[in-house]
Amino acid sequence: MKLADLATGPDWIIWIVFVVFAVLSIILLSGHGSWFISGYNMASKEEKEKYDEKKLCRTTGIGMSIIAILILIMGLFENFLSAFFIYIAVGIIVVDVVVIIILGNTLCRK
Known about the structure:
Elements: H1 3-6, H2 12-29, H3 45-48, H4 53-76, H5 85-106
Helix pairs in contact: 2-4, 4-5
C-alpha cells in the first residue's frame, strides 16, 4: 500500500501546509518571529531576558524546517512511499519537537 492510497483529501492541502511551515521556518531562521514561539510570546519581560532570542528563533526555525522537509517529501513522493512512512514521519516529528524543547531550555539560555 502506498502513501497515496491513504490520502482522502485534495492534494493542494499538503502544499498549503508545506508553504506555511516553510514561511514560518524562514522567518524564524532569520532571527525574527519570536511571537510565533509558544510560551516565549506570553512570557514576562523578566523571563524573556533569560533567553537569547535569536538563538531561540533559529533553533525553532531549524526544527520547523525539518518538519517542512518531511511534508515536502510526503507531498512529492506520495506515489512511491510506503504507507509505513507515516509512522516514520510521526516518529521523526516527535523526536524533533522533544529536541527543540530541550535545546530551547538549555542552549538558548543566556
